[in-house]
Amino acid sequence: MKILAMESSGDKTSVSVMLDDEINSFSLSHARKDRPNWDMFLQNIGLDRNFELKDIDLFAFGNSQNSYTATRSIASYMKGIAVALGKPLVVIDENSEDEFQADTVAKLAKEKFLSSDPQDKAFDPNYANPSYSEDLNFKKLNE
Questions:
Q1: pLDDT by residue (tens digit) across 7-32?
Q2: Residue 65: which CATH number?
């Protein structure tokens, strides 16, 4: 099984590709407001050398609670690829205090996929959206 996974905590982003039992990862620390160059990340894990996007069986991203904006950026990118290629996409919730990396996201995505019905909505890119666990209370303007 071939899995491409991404994760970002806002100031650190990682990407992993799982090609059967081998995992290749790349991570980079960056300024919180900088959007990483996805092409550079993918080249560093072997895109066009060891695999092509069309060869990926499952796409996954970590639903990080550290930066909703970074997670939305990754979700949009992964959703675009998955929809364009007609492939499944899964969200892996990060509910622990430990910082996830993309390799962990790939391993958990594989477990989830193999133990579920592949037709489950959990793998439909249209339902793969980031969520934020905190209850956000916004102040209304002009009140």
A1: 988 788 899 999 998 999 999 888 76
A2: 3.30.420.40
